[in-house]
Amino acid sequence: MKDKIFAHLNDPGQLEKIYRTNKVSFKREFDLLYPELKGGTAADFWHERLNFESDRISWGTGRELVFVIIAALIAGLIAKLPSIFAINEDFFYPRNVGFVVFPLLTVYFAWKNKLSSPKIAFSIGAVLTGLIFINLLPDVKKSDTLILSCVHLLLFLWSVLGFAFTGDQKNKDERRLGFLKYNGDLVVITTLILIAGGIMTGITIGLFSLIGFHIERFYSQNIVVMGLAAAPIIGTYLTQTNPQLVGKVSPVIAKLFSPLVLIMLVVYLIAIVYSGKNPYNNRDFLMIFNALLIGVMAIIFFSVAEISRSTKSYMQIWILFVLSVVTIIVNSVALSAIILRISEWGITPNRAAVLGGNVLILINLLLVTTQLFKVLSKKADVINVGKAIASYLPIYFVWTIIVTFIFPLIFGFK
């Protein structure tokens, strides 16, 4: 679509037709193209038109609305499969929870972005491979490889969703950053939907109890399950048709939490020294340490996705730079701890997965930190920071494939 916009910029009639074909995609691609066209009469007109903030909520086209309603119902039915067909919940949900939402969102973006046939075939093949493989794994109690495979399968399906989101566009890095921003927006809007749903649940159960109907069990097993499954789909639809809903909230969250996380992390590292506890002699502490690392990484990635698109604030970049440096220290401590455990007690599936994940994160952090330093030194543009993350995302995808599909075979389903 980017090429079409550029080619027909001075043809108002044709450009209007392209816009009405897919308004959301048109705005996204035009915003990426606008810095090159800024100053032209037609380009400035369309920029003002597309960025005019309307108070009205857009419900998209009728076809989109029907698709979302059907997808939400399908997601709810998938979530209810154990009760419908008397499937063991302990077997079904750990292995298949990702298939409740991710494939439907992948279909949505494949349809919206008019994905090419080979890429559609790849997406379908990847999802089906994951579905068949995870459900054929032996039902071994306390299997580390099974747990690792189930967890990394979620990341694998998330990567396939990102593949569909990126589409056939040439500007892969921009689209990958857009995917990270979409995830941040989705978390915000889905949380609001769930809060509203929780309030409605309490009111509904309370009203029915007043007239003698105790619907708690029925409501939780049916309405709540269907609602939880549908929330991300509805949230995705709202963020794509109404980007202004959370367009200003996400940057505020990024700016607010970056310094708070930095302060927390520094205080936490100091507290570790005084507490006498460390990841070198405590396995549970090491697991929590790595969970903290992943959470901080998510904050950094989300913040970088925001500053790459919306701001040139050097204060924000300084905060992210210091946060990245501190996170590298945290990562290095965790990495040295897992290497020590491997040298003393040998390799296990969990240790191998943590080691590989920490190495990948450390490399990515070093790349991001280097680019942040170059921006502060005025040797590079802030967009390069985003590229350092975007270009690295496929490597995480390869790692999810290794842990999900190869680890169970290498370690004999232990």
TrEMBL record:
TM ranges: 65-87, 93-111, 120-140, 146-165, 186-213, 219-240, 252-274, 286-305, 317-340, 352-373, 393-413
Domain of life: Bacteria
UniProt signal peptide: none
Entry keyword set: Membrane, Transmembrane, Transmembrane helix
Protein name: Uncharacterized protein DUF4153
Gene source species: Pedobacter metabolipauper
